[in-house]
């Protein structure tokens, strides 16, 4: 059997990983500033993570949501504290798309409405509603198309107000990434997030903060929406939540009420997944990784800003993007193949940095040196 060929891949086989580094099958070391797409939050193979998962696997790896699971309750308790949302409710699934799918559905169950407001350049996943609310027609199959999604320009308060004025009573939810990831690292303004909060409250719509990529401490606060000092009604999470173990979650404000059978999943919140998520929360807390993301991220952004050839350096914490001018269009490729540094990208010319939240200043310096060298070489060519 062949693999279904949907991924453009780099010809690298990763055999070992530790902290912010991975090694290929030839023993070559790479600095990982991509984290397998913003997934590695506490660093690869963190000892506490390995130990907690191994111990759990030796006890019980899986059982479904038909039995009591103290691990889920422990996770809800610790996550409530870490995220600053102790009165919210936790529902567990296994991926980011599933998190958004359930959030959109829950909002609609709650207010009985159908319309969803989403934004230009958004990415919310590939399941049916999540992809319908994603601004990329190339990945929306005909069967996913629905007239229920209203796409508005990002950070445009006037357009949002006009939309609510015209059809506020039909809007079920507004879904927004606090920092757009796949769209190229676009930070939602504080005024925009505050306006979403105000309009949702006025019109009985549900504010869904897609925090799958920008959440879990990556921005230097637990949720990037926290910078605007607003509470969303539902936060969706995945990626960094399990440091590579597939787990996602939605946390739900107290006024949204559960009913048996309303949502459900076989794998969500199983024993191993909870052990992974607990290990992550414990390490984030013990090692102050949210603060580290804020500090090392700020340092990296300040230093990138000093390189005049890089344009429009932006982001928050360890979610950083910058535009690469045409003259240095091979920069990302050269960082990988010459300097052995993994980075992410966004079309057409953005380099995205999504490293572990435990990134050290000296790892950041390794990237800065490599970029400076490449720019020097490019200028001499
Ligand atoms: C903001 C955002 N939401 C949702 C998703 C979908 O997550 P998953 O790939 O785990 O389904 C992603 C994935 O990149 C994302 O960046």
What's the layout of helices and strands?
Blueprint: E1 14-18, E2 21-24, E3 29-32, H1 35-38, H2 47-59, H3 70-83, E4 89-93, H4 96-111, E5 115-119, H5 128-132, E6 149-152, H6 157-167, E7 171-177, E8 179-180, E9 186-187, H7 190-203, E10 206-210, E11 234-237, E12 248-252, H8 271-286, H9 289-305, E13 311-316, E14 319-323, H10 331-337, E15 341-342, E16 344-346, E17 350-353, H11 361-380
Parallel strand pairs: 3-15, 5-6, 5-7, 7-10, 10-11
Antiparallel strand pairs: 1-2, 2-3, 4-12, 8-9, 11-12, 13-14, 14-17, 16-17
Helix pairs in contact: 2-8, 3-8, 6-7, 9-11
The structure holds pyridoxal-5'-phosphate.
Structure description:
The strands form four sheets. A seven-stranded mixed β-sheet has the order 4-12-11-10-7-5-6, with helices on both faces. A four-stranded mixed β-sheet has the order 1-2-3-15. It is globular. Helix 6 packs parallel to helix 7. The model has no long low-confidence stretch (mean pLDDT 97). The longest helix is centred in the C-terminal third of the chain and has 20 residues. The chain has eleven helices and 17 strands. With 381 residues, the chain is α/β, with parallel strands linked by helices. Bound molecules: pyridoxal-5'-phosphate. Pyridoxal-5'-phosphate (PLP) binds next to helix 4.
